[in-house]
């Protein structure tokens, strides 16, 4: 079933505005001194595979977008956009790996999401099998039910790193629930930051949560490992954004929510803090569907479980949903928050499993 759903994702793959950016990163490695070649090869490779309608969409003609049209026409404008994509090192390495195996540039980008979707399905089934042993039908139903959800299907066939990062969020949850050693969790967090550097917030809040839980509920000793890991992650994040000349959060916010600039260098990303707060409040009102789901799951977790560890780490996941929203208030884009919502649901399943006789669910069966 997971394979069939993955095949559906492949047959319904989407060529959207993000694809040129990641393919541009691919060719930037080969032609670092020639923005014109990078620009030409990027759009030529997409034109070969995308339908005429899809190519028009990528060129900003279906939903008229002057900035996207300018990226298609001007190599320098396109080149200025690449740092937004280059900082996602882990994702670009995965794309490069598939490209070196012989896949075309567009397929290399799309297959990362499709393969991640397939592997995520396997991990979900594995997790549910651990949580509900002997309940194979339930595990299958839960796995398939999650895989066919609209946000999950949207992530599975689009050229963005979100499905790839969701795969590692599931690996993180597997490690969290199975109480992996700290160095294994460290490696998973490292991968997440390399895939999307904005996961620095997730990594640091996890370290703070783990440090606090260990200190106050277990040994009252300061574990330097958490501090050293936090310093390393922060240094890595700063290195990535400096090395790739990443414009910064303010530019991302401006280009995403205010006005997409054709030339970043020609127009500063100016907006006031009061504008940001007003915009955030407006978007928060439109965030009600995700908020309703989040508060409902949190309420169930706290009702079902009195376990301090479950409650504390549920709050950690809950907090990251709204921290993510504060930095990137895309209330209409559930793909940015779906991974955290899925983690919270898995924590609920863990709470249910622990309550009903150590993962056996005898009282429910």
TrEMBL record:
The keyword NAD does not apply. The chain crosses the membrane at residues 109-131, 137-156, 163-180, 186-214, 226-246, 275-301, 308-330, 336-353. Keywords: Membrane, Transmembrane, Transmembrane helix. The keyword DNA repair does not apply. This is Dolichyl-phosphate-mannose-protein mannosyltransferase. It comes from Chryseobacterium geocarposphaerae.
């Amino acid at each position: 079933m997971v394979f069939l759903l993955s095949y559906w994702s492949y047959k319904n793959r989407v060529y959207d505005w993000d694809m040129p950016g990641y393919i541009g990163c691919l060719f930037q490695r080969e032609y670092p001194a020639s923005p014109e070649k990078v620009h030409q090869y990027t759009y030529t490779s997409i034109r070969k595979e995308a339908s005429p309608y899809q190519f028009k969409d990528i060129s900003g003609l279906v939903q008229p977008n002057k900035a996207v049209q300018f990226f298609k026409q001007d190599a320098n404008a396109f080149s200025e956009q690449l740092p937004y994509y280059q900082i996602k090192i882990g994702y670009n390495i995965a794309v490069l790996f598939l490209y070196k195996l012989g896949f075309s540039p567009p397929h290399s980008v799309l297959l990362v999401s499709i393969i991640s979707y397939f592997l995520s399905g396997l991990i979900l089934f594995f997790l549910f099998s651990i949580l509900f042993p002997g309940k194979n039908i339930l595990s299958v139903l839960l796995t398939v039910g999650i895989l066919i959800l609209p946000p999950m299907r949207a992530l599975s066939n689009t050229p963005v790193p979100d499905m790839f990062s969701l795969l590692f969020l599931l690996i993180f949850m597997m490690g969290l629930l199975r109480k992996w050693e700290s160095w294994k969790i460290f490696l998973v967090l490292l991968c997440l930051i390399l895939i999307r550097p904005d996961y620095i917030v997730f990594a640091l809040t996890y370290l703070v949560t783990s440090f606090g839980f260990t200190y106050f509920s277990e040994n009252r000793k300061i574990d330097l490992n958490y501090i050293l890991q936090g310093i390393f992650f922060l240094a890595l994040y700063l290195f990535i954004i400096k090395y790739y000349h990443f414009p910064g959060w303010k530019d991302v916010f401006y280009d995403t929510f205010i006005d997409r600039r054709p030339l970043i260098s020609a127009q500063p990303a100016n907006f006031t803090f009061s504008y940001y707060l007003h915009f955030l409040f407006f978007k928060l009102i439109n965030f009600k569907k995700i908020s309703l789901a989040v508060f409902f799951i949190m309420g169930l977790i706290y009702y079902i479980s009195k376990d301090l560890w479950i409650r504390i780490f549920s709050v950690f996941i809950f907090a990251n949903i709204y921290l993510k929203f504060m930095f990137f208030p895309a209330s209409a884009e559930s793909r940015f928050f779906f991974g955290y919502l899925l983690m919270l649901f898995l924590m609920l399943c863990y709470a249910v499993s622990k309550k009903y006789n150590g993962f056996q669910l005898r009282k429910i069966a």
